[in-house]
Amino acid sequence: MKAVRPDSVFAFLLGLLLVGTPGRAADAAQQPADKSPKLIAPAVSTGTGLLLEPALTLPEFTREKFAAAMATVGPEKIQRPWTNPVVTLPPHPRADAKGLTEAEVKDYMLEAKHLFSRGEAVPLSDVGLISTQEDVIRQPMLNHIAAFSNAVARVYLLVQKTASDQHWSYFSIVQDLTVTPALDYYAELRKEGPKFEGTSCYKCHSSGPLAIHPAREDLVLDAPLAAAIGRHIADQPRSQFVFPQDSPKPPTGEKLTLKFCTKCHDDEGDRDALYQVHSHPIRVLVDFGYMPPNRRLKPEEIVELKAWLEQKR
Fold first, then answer.
1. b/e burial code for range 124-156 (CB count within 10 A of at least 16 → b)
2. E strand or H helix that includes residue 187
3. Which of 139, 252, 280, 299 could form a disulfide with 275, with the two C-beta atoms 3.0–4.6 Å apart?
4. DSSP 99-164
5. pLDDT by position in tens, the chain (length 313)
6. What's the pTM value of the predicted model, to 2 decimals?
7. Distance between CA atoms of 185 and 102, rounded to whole angstroms?
8. By the 8 A CB rule, do 31 and 83 touch?
9. What is the helix (H) or strand (E) element at residue 88, kind and residue range?
10. 216/56 Cα distance (integer angstroms)
11. Backbone torsion region of residue 307, taken as left when φ is above 0, otherwise alpha when ψ lies between -120 and 50, otherwise beta
């Protein structure tokens, strides 16, 4: 199987309300119509000059090619009917757990994969914005993303391949909610079992799953589901990245201290601090107008941010 490049492994984006799979619909409450999340804004570069390379629009990758490529994972596994976007997992066997064991984390990852393989997940399907732009792969990165949860964990599954690959790869994030702040575990799901990852994933994931941002408006199956899972992610708790011993924290470079960023991203903020190692998602999300979430940066702020991004580590 052709491997996905390490720096694209977790360029994926994802928390929301509790859920149910099609087979567990009786356990899930209908999402009120007046609380339906707004659809995700189309990805359009704002021309900030922050991008290292011109923004990709993928004109040769048509909606028809996209749908056909997505179905190769097994058409029965995707475009599932759904009531709620997050699949409810069984209660954790240790009701008083204060910190999940690595074995328990791996069990949650494998359960998410098994549910997807049996067609019992509720995955959105898209071409990811962050994973196609800049220094990652510069070609369509196909994603199936599903969310799961119970009282102790938020679990995410990413089934991913490039448009030119033949086989799908599986990745997972588990957020341990039994401790404060929550702990984020990342892994590639290999044939021999989950392999915890750290170094490469941290480049995009400073503080948990990223929001859903399709690379183009028509390169997403079930836009309302994508928006709902994106809202679930936005509601995630503050969390910290767990680095396994064989995949340590990479050199971070300078810490981002610009006030218009540290309102959220700081040691004591709603999200963890950002460093130069995170420059790729910063460039893309700011240039496409997704960060900050409630406004566009002013021209003078763009100048400040660009100067910081271009500092030598």
1. bbbbbbbbbbbebbeebbbbbbbbbbbebbbbb
2. strand 182-190
3. 252
4. S--HHHHHHHHHHHHHHHHTT-S--EEEEBSTTTSTTS-SS-EEEEEEEEE-SSEEEEEEEEEETT
5. 334 443 433 343 333 333 333 333 333 333 434 466 789 999 999 999 999 999 999 999 999 999 999 999 999 999 999 999 999 999 999 989 999 999 999 999 999 999 999 999 999 999 999 989 876 678 899 999 999 999 999 999 999 999 999 999 999 999 999 999 999 999 999 999 999 999 989 888 888 898 899 999 999 999 999 999 999 999 999 899 999 999 999 899 999 889 888 888 887 777 888 889 999 999 999 999 998 888 888 999 999 999 999 987 6
6. 0.86
7. 9
8. yes
9. strand 86-88
10. 10
11. alpha
Question: Are 154 and 177 contacting, i.e. CB atoms less than 8 angstroms apart?
Answer: yes
Dist CA 153 CA 17 (whole Å): 13
- Judge contact between 184 and 205, C-beta under 8 A: yes
- Structure-token match 């998602």, residue found: 281
Cα end-to-end distance, the chain, whole Å: 35
Contact 103, 191 (CB under 8 A): no
Query: What are 73's two structure tokens?
Result: 């994972």
Task: Check if the beta carbon of residue 40 is closer than 8 Å to that of residue 215.
Answer: no
User: Which residue from 9, 7, 284 is spatially nearest to 161, judged by alpha carbons?
Assistant: 9
Given a contact cutoff of 8 angstroms between Cβ atoms, the answer to whether 112 and 147 are in contact is: no
Alpha helices in the chain (DSSP H): 63-71, 102-117, 223-234, 259-262, 279-287, 299-309
